Amino acid sequence: MSACSYTDPADLLVQALKFRKVRAAARVMAEVMWARRPAGAFADDAWLLPVPLHPWRQWRRGFNQSSLIAAHLARLGPWRLLSGTARRNRRTRAQSGLSRSERRRNLANAFTVKPGPLPSSIVLIDDVVTTGTTLDALALTLRRAGVEDIRAWVFARTPLS
Q: Angle at Cα 83 formed by Cα 1 and Cα 102, nearest 5°?
């Protein structure tokens, strides 16, 4: 589920957050997502899981944009934030500019989940979805770890999706 299309002004918000480090954009993005959420889309006991960045990419950027958005959403709604559970264990190429099949290969076995109990309902949070490959790869890892209900909630969907 996406709140909007990746067109002006949504694309400018994403670019401000990711490339100009305007962290306040994450709050605005979360507020738009909150305002446009369909009633009953997610269970009240669901946990929000931001899509993890590889540690190197997070270090280079200084933050994980999905984590910032998820933290604001957790303040707005009834959900709790699940952090440190999933990890991107391989330093993959940036997905932008890759074809669907290249994206799939790029993210094969890219995620791991910390051992231990997991909630039965998780909502993946991300800034932008194009083909859904990142969300699919993370969802597959979570499903293999025993999570039953996995949904995705993103700020913007590109025209390619």
A: 55
CB 157 within 8 A of CB 2: yes
**Is-contact 130 95, C-beta < 8 A?**
yes
State the Cα–Cα distance between residues 68 and 126, nearest whole angstrom.
10
Whole-number Å distance between alpha carbons of 155 and 126 = 7
Residue listed under structure tokens 């309902």: 121
Pick 2-157's CATH classification: 3.40.50, 1.10.287, 2.60.40, 2.60.200. 3.40.50
Q: What is the pTM of this model?
A: 0.91
Average pLDDT, the chain: 91
Strand order of the sheet with strand 121-129?
2-5, 149-157, 121-129, 47-50, 80-81
| List of the chain residues with pLDDT < 70 | 92-100, 106, 160-161
